[in-house]
Amino acid sequence: MPAERPLRVADATVIVHPDADAASRDAADRIARVVAEAVAARGKAVLGLATGATPEKVYDRLAARVADGSLSFRDVTTYNLDEYYPIQPLDPLSYRSYMHRHLFSRVDLAPNRAHVLDGTVPEHAAAAHAAEFDRWIDADGGLDLQLLGIGRNGHIGFNEPSDLPVAEFAARGTLPIDLHPITKADAVREFGSLEAVIPRALTMGVRQILAARTILMLATGPKKAPIVARALKGPVTASVPASVLRTVADRVVWILDEPAAAELG
C-alpha cells in the first residue's frame, strides 16, 4: 500500500492517505495518543466529537482498541459538536442516538461524561442551554482534541457559511442556528426527503473549536475535494467556515484520503 503523503498547504499540516481506511486509522491513532498524554498529564482527557459518515470508521477503531484493552475512556469526557433542534434523544436520527450506536455503547465512557446538546430544551431556553454548554467545556479546561468533518459548503459542526467578519465569526459561542440549503440537501440521505429534514440545529461555536489544543480535520472521498481546496487555498473567510482553521494552523492536522486531496495539487 502506498505510504501517507505529507503536504504543506497555506501553512497547514496536511496528511494524505491512499484511502479512507488509512485516514481513519491515522485519526484514531492520534486520538488515542492525545487521550493517553492528557490523562498522564492531568488525570483526564476532554474530546470534542463529530458525527456523520466520515467518523464512523474512526469510532470503530477506537471501540476495537477499548475491546482489546489498549485504550480506555474511563478518564475521558466528551462534548459533541451539534444536534438537530428540536429532536428527541431516542430518535434514531438524533446525534445522541448516532453517538450511542457508534461509540458510547461500545466503550467504557461514563454516561455523565458524554455530553450532547439537548434537542428537547424549550425554545425560550435554547440560547441559555447553548451558553451553558460553553461553560461546561470551559470548566473542564477546554478541549484537548476536536475531531471535525467538513460539509460541502465548508461548515464545521453546524457553523454554516456567514457574512460575519472573520474575528466576529471566530469568537462566536455555541448557539441555535438555521441550516444552510446545502446542509439540508445533504441530510436528505438520512431523513428521506427535503421536507422531512429538521431545518435547525444547536452547534458548538467556532470559539471552542479554535481553542482546542489539537484539531483533526478528517475528510474523505471525491465530493469533499472542491471544498477542501477552497478551505486550504482560498481566502480565510466566514463564507467558508473551515478556512478559519488556518488562523490556528499550528494546532490543526488535515487528514485526507487521495480523492479528497485531488484538487490540492
Q: What's the layout of helices and strands?
A:
Layout: E1 5-9, E2 12-17, H1 20-42, E3 45-49, H2 56-68, E4 76-80, E5 82-84, H3 95-102, E6 114-115, H4 126-139, E7 145-148, H5 166-170, E8 175-178, H6 181-191, E9 200-203, H7 206-211, E10 215-219, H8 225-233, E11 252-257
Parallel strand pairs: 2-11, 3-4, 3-7, 4-6, 7-10, 10-11
Antiparallel strand pairs: 1-2, 5-9, 8-9
The fraction of residues in strands falls at: 15-25%
Q: Give the strand line-up of the largest sheet.
A: 1-2-11-10-7-3-4-6
CATH architecture: 3-Layer(aba) Sandwich
Computed over alpha carbons, the radius of gyration is 17 Å
Name of the top-level CATH class: Alpha Beta
Count of strand segments = 11
End-to-end separation: 21 Å
Helix content: 25-40%
Q: How many domains, as an integer?
A: 1
Low-confidence stretches: none
What do the pLDDT scores average to?
97
Biggest beta sheet summary: 8 strands, mixed
Order of helices and strands: EEHEHEEHEHEHEHEHEHE
Counting DSSP H or I runs of 4 or more residues, the number of helices is 8
CATH topology: Rossmann fold
Global geometry:
globular
The helix/strand class is: alpha/beta
The gist of it:
With 265 residues, the protein is an alpha/beta fold.
Give a description of the structure.
The protein is α/β, with parallel strands linked by helices. It has a single domain, classed as Rossmann fold (3-Layer(aba) Sandwich), CATH 3.40.50.1360. Helix content is 34%, strand content 18%. The chain is built from 8 helices and 11 strands. It has helices spanning 20-42, 56-68, 95-102, 126-139, 166-170, 181-191, 206-211, 225-233, and strands at residues 5-9, 12-17, 45-49, 76-80, 82-84, 114-115, 145-148, 175-178, 200-203, 215-219, 252-257. The chain has an 8-stranded mixed β-sheet, with helices on both faces. Strands 5-9-8 form a 3-stranded antiparallel β-sheet. Helix 1 (20-42) crosses helix 2. It is globular, with a radius of gyration of 17 Å.
